[in-house]
What does this fold into?
Amino acid sequence: MQKEKIKISFAFILKNISYMIRYSYSNCRMRVIGIFIIALFSGINAANVTLFYKYAIESFERENPLLFLLITIMVYLLIHLFNVTVSNIFTNVKFPIWDLKIKNGLSKILYDKYISIDLSDINNADFYNRYVRALNEADQRAVLILNTLQYFLSNLFSVLGIVSVVAILNPILILFSIIPVISSTFINMKITKKDLIMKWL
It folds into this structure.
């Protein structure tokens, strides 16, 4: 019975997550697009780190190892610095402004719904408690969902970046890299599912 309840609750959570993402996109499109931009740069940075180690090791086989290593380090640092700069601009400058816009939009939706309902429902204690809870938690849940989406996509793109580099360098190694990735992804999905249920209920 408990297991069935959790499944139903998680399905309900997924439905609400889908709604929140769609609403966030319609209310502030750049907030959702920004998540994908950060995730993309996470993948690029992961590939950058992997390639850095490869070329750093190969530099000792070159005619001028010190110069090649210096160029490798400079390229790595430039890409990494660009990635950090873009991520910080979105995370610390743009996202707080866009989050506020989404929060205000959700508050307006709840307020419009409140003034349009029947007076008898307003006097209902259960309804009032649910409304107050929704009003207090709606904006927090929206940001939580967007941050979780960003975390998931950033990790996904990072894995894809590393796997892509490994596949190009040595396709055989892709088999050894996929196994831990799949295992880690499966475990993280289980943890995320449980965490979402605990936070949402």
